[in-house]
Amino acid sequence: TDSDNISLLFGYGNGNFADSITCSIDSRPISVAVGDLNNDNRSDLVVSYLQTTRIDVLLGYGNGSFAYPIKYAIDSISVCVVMADFNNDNCLDVAVAAYNTSYMYVFSGYGNGSLSTPQKFRTDATPVFLMVVDFDYDTHLDLVVANYEANTVGIFIGYGNGSFEEQITYSVDRRPWALTVGDLNNDDRLDIVAATLGFSTITILFGDEDGSFINKTIIPVGDIPESVGIGD
């Protein structure tokens, strides 16, 4: 985030990577999502920035290089961008957490590398992290968001047409910054883990059979946790 570049490391297929290649873009990039936005079987990039109120789409040529960015304005800087097919049209869409607002933006993809005018969905204050999940196992993708200043995690249940139910929120310890999702207690229900930057803790929200996340556990960890993952 201290430069105007992103770095690409091409894999050899054996767990090793070539030296990084720098791609010059703009204004302190902070989040990158990878997917095929124009259905040409080549990976494209969507980039959000710490100092610029827009996202950029960089269409890939399939050789590690990219076309000149296509720019889409938003009302705020964004520290997280994700790609998924939210409207089940076999074209990737883009969701953006608009940091200085109480909104996330969802751009529908047309399958040719271009994006629609975004829909706005109200979050709590300062959304900083998004993750794509199917919480209710209905094959319609949902979103979970970390609302930094509000000290909440919000869940948006997807309708499968690019729209979402109103946010359902759950309180966590102070200032959630990153999230992950998995079944932590082997009950076949997804749980949510939030890295809470303000109190050097993680908060676990356990999924209930009714789809809620009422039960929670707070666990102290090291100073200023900025990321969290689940593994065996």
What can you tell me about this protein's structure?
With 232 residues, the chain is mainly beta. It folds into two domains: 32-170, Neuraminidase (6 Propeller), CATH 2.120.10.30; 172-231. It is built from no helices and 18 strands. The strands form five sheets. A four-stranded antiparallel beta sheet has the order 3-4-5-6, with no helix packed on it. A four-stranded antiparallel beta sheet has the order 7-8-9-10, with no helix packed on it. It has a four-stranded antiparallel beta sheet with strand order 11-12-13-14, with no helix packed on it. A hairpin with a 4-residue loop joins strand 16 and strand 17 (201-205). The two termini are 31 Å apart.
Give the topology.
Blueprint: E1 5-8, E2 21-24, E3 29-35, E4 44-49, E5 54-58, E6 70-73, E7 78-84, E8 93-98, E9 103-107, E10 119-122, E11 127-133, E12 142-147, E13 152-156, E14 168-171, E15 176-182, E16 191-196, E17 201-205, E18 216-220
Antiparallel strand pairs: 1-2, 3-4, 4-5, 5-6, 7-8, 8-9, 9-10, 11-12, 12-13, 13-14, 15-16, 16-17, 17-18
Keywords: Signal
Protein name: VCBS repeat-containing protein
InterPro entries: FG-GAP, Integrin_alpha_N
- Provide the structure class: mainly beta
Beta-strand fraction estimate? 35-45%
- What is the helix/strand order? EEEEEEEEEEEEEEEEEE
- Number of structurally distinct domains: 2
Characterize the overall form.
globular
| Mean pLDDT score | 94
**Number of helical regions:** 0
CATH top level assignment of the largest domain? Mainly Beta
Question: What is the CATH superfamily classification of the largest domain?
Answer: TolB, C-terminal domain
Distance between the termini: 31 Å
Cα gyration radius (Å):
18 Å
The major beta sheet can be summarized as: 4 strands, antiparallel
Q: What is the name of the CATH topology of the largest domain?
A: Neuraminidase
Poorly predicted runs are: none
The percent range for helix content is under 10%
Number of strands: 18
Q: Which architecture name of the largest domain does CATH use?
A: 6 Propeller
Strand order of the largest sheet: 3-4-5-6
